[in-house]
Structure formats: C-alpha cells, structure tokens
Amino acid sequence: MEVHGDGAGNSTRPRKVIDEENSAVEIPETAHQISSDSWFQVGFVLTTGINSAYVLGYSGTIMVPLGWIPGVLGLIIATAISLYANSLIAELHEFGGRRHIRYRDLAGFIYGRKAYCLTWGLQYVNLFMINTGYIILAGSALKAVYALFSDDHVMKLPYFIAISGFVCALFAMSIPHLSALRLWLGVSTVFSLIYIVVAFVLSVKDGIEAPARDYSIPGTTRSKIFTTIGASANLVFAFNTGMLPEIQATIKQPVVSNMMKSLYFQFSAGVLPMYAVTFIGYWAYGSSTSTYLLSSVNGPVWVKALANISAFLQTVIALHIFASPMYEYLDTKYGIIGSPFSIRNLSFRVGVRGGYLTINTLVAALLPFLGDFMSLTGAISTFPLTFILANHMYLKAKKNKLTSLQKLWHWFNVCFFGLMSIAAAVSALRLIAVDSKTYHVFADL
Predict the structure, then answer these.
(1) CA–CA distances in Å: residue 386 to residues 21, 67, 292, 343
(2) Quick one: pLDDT at residue 105?
(3) Residue 388 DSSP class
(4) Is residue 370 within 8 Å of residue 291, measured between CB atoms?
(5) Which PANTHER family match (predicted)?
C-alpha cells in the first residue's frame, strides 16, 4: 500500500488491495501521522517497551522457574531470535511495491482476507492483554508507595488499579498519536533509569549482606515442567511488541534501513539494563525473588517511593505505545483528522479512548495475576505474531529467492514455535486455574 498525503493522514478514503487469490481487502489510509520520525526516536519507542516496569518482574517470572544456566542462556537466545524475527518483518514493510503500515495489512496482502482478519484478532488480543498488564503494574507500583507510608490496608490493589486506569486515560486523551510522544520518550527513559538503578543498587546491597540463597527451582517435578514452559513464553514477551509494522510506519524514508538501525539500537542499548536488573535481582534473593522486584529490596523509604512513582509514571507512557494501534484504527474509522485539540476530536478521544481503557481497567482489577497474564500473552499472541507468522510470511514473500536450506530453516522455526505456542498456552491456562483457587476476583495481591 502506498501512503500519500502530508504525513498527517488527511485522507480516510478506503482503497482495495487484491491478493493472489483475488479476494479484496479494504486498506484505509491512516488518520495518524506517518513517515515523520527519525530512526533514533523509533529506537526509543522500542526501547521504552523493553525497559518498561515489566523488567521488575523478570527475576521472578523468568529466572526463578528456569534457574541460573537456563535462565541466562534463555534470555540471550531470546534476544538473538527476537532481533532476527523482527528484522524479517521489517524487511517486508515495502513488499510488493506497497508500504504496509499495519501488521494485518501485510498479512492480508500476502495471504488474503482470512489471514487479514486472523492477524487483526491475534494482534488486538495481544495488545489488549499487554495494556491490561500495564495497568496492573501501575496499580502495583502505587500500592507499593502507599504501603511504604501506611499499614492500615484500607486502600486495596483494585483501588490503585482504578486510579492508574484514570491517569492512563488522561494521558491517552492528551497524546493524539504515536509520533506525538517525542519528548515523553526522553521522560520515559529517565523514569526507567530511576527504577532500574534503584532496584540494581539496593539488590546488590541486600545480596552482599544476605546469607546463602536458595537457587533451586521450586515446586514438584510436574509443576516445574509447566512453569518452565510458561517462563519460555515470558522470554518471548520480554523482547517483542507484536506491532512492529505500526511502529515502522512512523519512521522516515528509507524505512527498511532506518528500521534496522532502530532495531539494533533497541537490542544493543535496551537489553543491557534489562539483563542487569533481572540477573542481580535473582542473585540477591534467589528463589524467593518477588514478581515485583521493588517489593523485595530493602532501603530508604524515600528512595523506594521514588522508584515506585517512576515505575508508575513510566508505565503510563509505555501503555500508550501499545494502545496506539487501537487508537489509530478508531481515529481512522471515524475520520478524526485536523487539529487534535478541536472540540470534536478531543471529545472523541475522551469518550472512545476513555471507554477502551475503562474496559482494560476493569479486567485488570478483576484478574490481577501478572505472571499468568504474561505467560498467556506470550503463548496465544506473541509466539504466533512474532515467530510463526514472521517466518512463514518471509517464506511466502521470498520463496523464489531462498535456497533449500533457508526454506528448511524457516519451516523449522514455524513448526518449533507452533509447538511452543501450544505448550505455553496449556501451561498458562493451568497456572491460571491453579491461581484461581488461591485468589478471588478483585484480589488484593
């Protein structure tokens, strides 16, 4: 799909792309800004996703179920294969002489309408669950601040989740599209560094002062199998957005080479802080590591409060990135163009984005099981979108240019990650079933 206009998406006329089987897929132009961002800004968008407050849970959700050697190797391997899979999708952005600014557009162009609809469904389930997880994280951070200064337990986690959802909605109403984040990406980076540095330093202090830790993988043999599979899904979730074409749509020409620069920036600068806080948290606390690392560390109250407030605020910014495809769809469908702060456009964002985040917030308050959530997200959406579909689309698009060995490699990836996706989904559902016996709806975790 060629995208024309002034870069602000001033046309919402639907156009049709005909796939190889002659089934029509309507591809609307976008109401959001495209082709306007430098590769450096897009790199920060990607890095913001990697170093969100989710990193404060990886010690507990990845290292504890896997242990030292599998955990470290798993993170390194996941980094490499995620960069590889994302590069495959990035290379297809202008496949067929058209620019595909949405994941579903690319899938529809290659496969047809059924794949277009299936990809759309998978992606929005993925992004909805990620957004729900962000609201849980934000609520947990606020509750941690409250617990530092009060022990009356009057305020419960669902209350803080509701507050977080309201703040996220206010931010969503103020930022019209993904490219408009600009300055906020720098603010997000500062917040990320605050909670990562605090978690790292206080964990080192606790680790030095603590007695010998237990690094054994907890649970029975049967439970270890399921938690290991679930942790593998968390590894995938840690590095992937499930919305790479939508992010790539904002980048300036040449889009493929610039996107590759952004990806290399993400995986060179972005993963080091994540590695540091994940490994040091597990080293300091072993198998007793909390799924929210700042809940484990000891230190001055004001320092922990600052770190938790930073985690809360950074989460509000990061959520906006993963909610932007939904906002783009709605704004485009209803022709929200022109000044973002006109009465019509502002009232539309208040009603529609506020309603969407209200649903996210309600689900977050009902089921605040963060580890379970991450596993299920990785299983049912991130695996298929990032690895299965990426490899198969590349096979389909480049079939005449690949050697037999290259084709075999991509088919191996499709089959392997397909099996992993099924196994991870079963594991996550089992974990949810087990936790549902322990926790109730609107639980105060």
Answers:
(1) 25, 25, 26, 39
(2) 93
(3) I
(4) yes
(5) OS05G0424000 PROTEIN-RELATED
Give the separation between CA 196 and CA 201, rounded to whole angstroms: 9
Residue 6 lies in a domain: no
When the pLDDT of each residue in the chain is averaged and rounded to a whole number, the result is 86
CATH number where 285 lies: 1.20.1740.10
Range of the domain at 386: 14-438
pLDDT tens by residue, 77-87: 999 999 999 99
Burial category of 403 from C-beta neighbours within 10 Å (exposed 0-12, middle 13-18, buried 19 and up): exposed
Contact assessment for residue 132 and residue 161, using Cβ atoms and an 8 Å cutoff: no
pLDDT, position 410: 94
pLDDT at residue 414 greater than cutoff 90: yes
Residue 367 to residue 128: CA distance in whole angstroms? 14
The sign of the torsion formed by the CA atoms of 305, 311, 313, 314 equals positive
Minimal CA–CA distance to 387: which of 424, 423, 412? 412
Number of domains present in the structure of the chain:
1
* Residue 259: CB atoms within 10 Å: 26
Q: How far apart are CA 379 and CA 326, in angstroms?
A: 21
Residue 168 within any structural domain of the chain: yes
Residue 311 and residue 198 in contact, taking contact as beta carbons nearer than 8 Å: no
pLDDT above 80 (res 7): no
d(CA 109, CA 113): 8
CA distance 224 to 419: 18
- Whether the CA torsion 94, 100, 101, 107 is positive or negative: it is negative
Between CA 53 and CA 55 the distance in angstroms is 5
Q: Does residue 158 have a cis peptide bond before it, meaning omega lies within 30 degrees of 0?
A: no
Give residue-wise pLDDT tens across range 244-292. 999 999 999 999 999 999 999 988 888 889 999 999 999 999 998 887 8
Show Cβ contacts of residue 154 under 8 Å, excluding neighbours closer than 6 positions: none
- Helices 404-438/389-397 angle, 10° precision: 160
Amino acid at 46: L
